[in-house]
Write a structure and sequence with these properties.
The complex is a heterodimer of chains A (about 180) and B (about 280). In chain A, helix 2 (about 35-55) packs across helix 3 (about 65-90) and helix 6 crosses helix 7 (about 150-175). The longest helix of chain A is centred in the middle third of the chain and has 26 residues, at about 65-90. Helix content of chain A is about 70%, strand content about 0%. By secondary structure, chain A is mainly alpha-helical. Chain B starts with 19 loop residues before the first helix and ends with a strand. Chain B has about 280 residues and is α+β, with helices and mostly antiparallel strands. In chain B, helix 1 (about 20-35) packs parallel to helix 4 (about 180-190). Chain B has a domain at about 45-50 and about 100-275: 2,3-Dihydroxybiphenyl 1,2-Dioxygenase, domain 1, CATH 3.10.180. In chain B, the strands form 2 sheets. In chain B, strands 1, 2, 3, 4, 5, 6, 7, 8 and 9 form a 9-stranded mixed β-sheet that branches. Chain B has a 7-stranded mixed β-sheet with strand order 11-12-10-13-16-15-14. In chain B, a hairpin with a 5-residue loop joins strand 15 (about 255-260) and strand 16. The interface of A and B includes residues 23, 24, 44, 48 and 163 of A.
Chain lengths: ~180, ~280
């Protein structure tokens, strides 16, 4: 970063100028996916400071909300990765059921689905949020998670199965009729 | 092919407002990390305090006579036909100007970084100017209210003190049609923290002296200044005797208040503080 650049062209100034508009977008993206305001604040701070770091290393041509959301997604995946490691330590044995063959035709209730997403394991949550909530292609999900395409497809299958089991159990509790 | 039920989960990023304190703190961290407005001590930004106010007026001599008589101000003739009010804390000035709305001068650590914060928060900031009293930049907040940010010379950069004697500031009210927006702006620019919203959403600033607040739902593009008097009724009679006019009265736990205009038609306000205020 050189101070001789005009303010309008300088990514550092552009980032600050964008801050007010970008902050609710980045925070809102993270809040809806990580499920807690305190965690969303931490990840939002990580996101913007990572943006500063990228600007410092002259790796940025133009700052934009979409670019910041991309960084936020990386931060979210990093968080889930840490969380999944923690869960593995806590779990004595991962005994996941094999996926059922029958197609699932349920129309998902969004509020209920959000609760289920927050409750399942971090690795499964990461896969489902990237693939379905964010709508990324499987190849992009694989890249974010640092897995092969085949491993990601297998993870998605297990994640959907875990989601479905959890979703149906909350349904039995919630549906009075 | 049947649609995947999981496609229902798709959700675009829905914006959400974080806490204003968090937003302000993160902005400072970003500015510091970018090398813009870095605090030389490395600590958090010190909250701005009000160290000076000015009453601009077309006829400074006439205003000096009016306010000197009404509020007991000792006025020292300064440069360019203005007056410095020497016997009150924080001090103020009367300046000759076609502009007839008061200004508040708020301290900041670095003038360029402060101007940058104003612009980044959606406000307007002119180019900083060097005065005898220090560097200052004329600004408007994101709702159009005018204020000055300044790095005062050491002589003026004293410990902030709240007024307590007649003739000194009792309260400064910054109009904020949208108080929540005002809160975000001043948290980001001045490092101010706010109490719980009161009437019409107005909020008191909890970490600045003299006492200051956002006037909720009130429009206007300049701060209102409220000066202490010992006896509101006697002061009201004096205003009229000196050729001014008096307007609405109001009352609260903190005291009795009166809206006035001086003998040139410039608005100002008086407060008789209740015991303990």
């Amino acid at each position: 970063m050189t101070s001789s650049e005009p303010a309008g062209q300088d990514p550092a100034h552009a980032l600050l100028a964008l801050y007010d508009r970008a902050l609710p977008q980045v925070y809102g993206y993270l809040l809806r996916r990580c499920g807690g305001a305190a965690l969303a604040e931490d990840l939002t701070a990580d996101t913007f400071l990572a943006a500063v770091h990228a600007i410092d290393r002259d790796r940025v041509d133009a700052v934009s909300v979409a670019w910041l959301i991309g960084i936020a997604r990386h931060k979210l995946v990093d968080h889930w990765r840490r969380q999944a490691r923690e869960e593995r330590r806590l779990r004595l044995a991962a005994n996941e059921p094999s996926p059922p063959d029958d197609p699932w035709a349920e129309v998902l209730d969004r509020a209920r689905a959000a609760g289920v997403l927050a409750a399942i394991g971090a690795q499964h949550r990461a896969a489902l949020v990237l693939r379905y909530v964010d709508g990324l292609p499987v190849a992009d999900v694989a890249a974010h998670l640092g897995r092969t395409l085949a491993a990601t497809e297998a993870l998605l299958t297990r994640a959907k199965s875990a989601f479905r089991t959890a979703y149906e159990s909350t349904g039995r509790r919630a549906d009075g009729d | 092919m049947a649609t995947d039920p999981f496609d229902r989960l798709r959700e675009p990023a829905i914006p959400a407002e974080p806490r204003p304190e968090f937003a302000a703190q993160l902005r400072r961290r970003i500015a510091e990390a970018l090398g813009l407005g870095a605090d030389p001590t490395g600590g958090p930004m010190a909250p701005s305090h009000l160290y000076y106010f000015t009453i601009p007026t077309p006829d400074a001599e006439r205003a000096a006579a009016f306010y000197g008589e009404l509020l007991g101000w000792q006025l020292e003739r300064g440069s360019a036909g203005g007056y410095h009010i020497a016997n009150i804390t924080p001090p103020g000035g009367i300046s000759p100007s076609e502009e007839t709305q008061p200004s508040v001068w708020l301290t900041v650590d670095g003038i360029d970084a402060a101007a940058e914060r104003v612009r980044a928060a959606g406000g307007e900031a002119d180019e900083p100017v060097e005065y005898a009293s220090g560097w200052a930049v004329s600004c408007r907040d994101d709702q159009g209210t005018h204020f000055e940010l300044s790095v005062p010379i050491p002589e003026y950069d004293t410990e902030p003190v709240s007024g307590s004697r007649p003739g000194e500031l009792f309260y400064v009210s910054i109009p904020a049609a949208d108080p929540e927006r005002g809160r975000r702006f001043y948290a980001a620019v001045c490092g101010w923290e706010f109490g719980e919203p009161g009437s019409a959403g107005g909020m008191h600033v909890s970490n600045v002296v003299p006492d200051c607040g956002l006037g909720g739902g009130r429009s206007g593009d300049h701060p209102e200044l409220w000066f202490r008097v010992a006896d509101l009724d006697a002061a009201a009679a004096k205003v009229v005797e000196l050729g001014g006019t008096v307007g609405d009265r109001s009352q609260g736990d903190e005291g009795r208040h009166l809206v006035c205009a001086d003998d040139q038609g410039i608005a100002f306000n008086l407060s008789e503080p209740a015991s303990g205020y």
